[in-house]
Amino acid sequence: MHPDDMRKALEAIGHILKRFAEPRLRESLGPAYMETLALQTNGRVMRQLPPDPSVLCRVLISRWDESFSQSADDQVLDLVHAVRKARDRHSHFVTTFTDEDRRHAIGAMRLLAIKLEGPSAAAEFDVLLGTRLTSDGPAGQSKAKAPHSSGYLDPEGLTAEQVQGRKLLCPACKEPIFKSWSSGWDGHAGHRCEGLSIQRPPLGDPAARKAEFKRRFRHLFR
């Protein structure tokens, strides 16, 4: 990956977070919500909410219960935390931020974009991640083409009864992992899955990764 890919991804997610945050802040805090937030930069109070992921993630986290929890689930909050940590680490340790770090961070931003604005919001992140695109979607709309998925069922929109014991794409990273669902889910989620907001070991805690996986995809477990 190119080092500039992280900057492009942060710019893209910043605008998405701003579109999500502004109307909800206005609804919960009133038209003068910026005065209530009292955000500052360089010693001056901000008059407008900037498309800055660092600022927006901080606002979302601090105002989650009051302004955002009614219109987004806990996975969104998990991803917001992950994006904030990745942005801060990239900012302070850019020389040691590896391609794998960038790919994981951009993957979290991609998932967050989908949660907030739907599948079409993934397009810019797919380009940065190098996902192959095809234009055979409805009305010529581009969509991600999952590699190596032949013979494996995509569990999106299905129930536990429909997927039990079947060859399954991982519901988080969309890789053909499970030869008989749900056998081996904990090992994959704890150590290998690239579709979670918490980084893989040793940077991330396997138990926390498994808890996130089980929470997000509880509907696929009996």
Helix content: 40-55%
| Category by helix and strand content | mainly alpha
* Overall outline: globular
Q: Helix and strand succession?
A: HHEEHHHHHEEHEEHH
Question: Which regions have little confidence, pLDDT < 50, spanning 5+ residues?
Answer: 132-149
How many separate helices?
Answer: 10
Give a concise summary.
51% of the residues lie in helices and 6% in strands. The chain has helices at 4-29, 33-37, 53-62, 64-68, 74-92, 99-117, 123-129, 160-163, 185-192, 206-216; strands at 40-41, 44-45, 133-134, 143-144, 168-169, 176-178. Helix 3 packs antiparallel against helix 5 and helix 6 packs antiparallel against helix 7.
Give short descriptive properties of this protein.
6 strands; two-stranded antiparallel sheet; 6% strand; 10 helices; globular; 222 residues
Strand and helix layout:
Elements: H1 4-29, H2 33-37, E1 40-41, E2 44-45, H3 53-62, H4 64-68, H5 74-92, H6 99-117, H7 123-129, E3 133-134, E4 143-144, H8 160-163, E5 168-169, E6 176-178, H9 185-192, H10 206-216
Antiparallel strand pairs: 1-2, 3-4, 5-6
Helix pairs in contact: 1-3, 1-6, 3-5, 5-6, 6-7, 9-10
Task: Describe the overall structure.
A two-stranded antiparallel ribbon has the order 1-2. A hairpin with an 8-residue loop joins β3 (133-134) and β4. α1 packs parallel to α6, α3 packs antiparallel against α5 and α5 packs antiparallel against α6. It has two domains: 4-144, no CATH class; 160-220, no CATH class. The chain is mainly alpha-helical and 222 residues long. 51% of the residues lie in helices and 6% in strands. Mean pLDDT is 84; it is low at 132-149. The chain has helices spanning 4-29, 33-37, 53-62, 64-68, 74-92, 99-117, 123-129, 160-163, 185-192, 206-216; strands at residues 40-41, 44-45, 133-134, 143-144, 168-169, 176-178. The chain starts with a helix and ends in a 6-residue tail after the last helix.
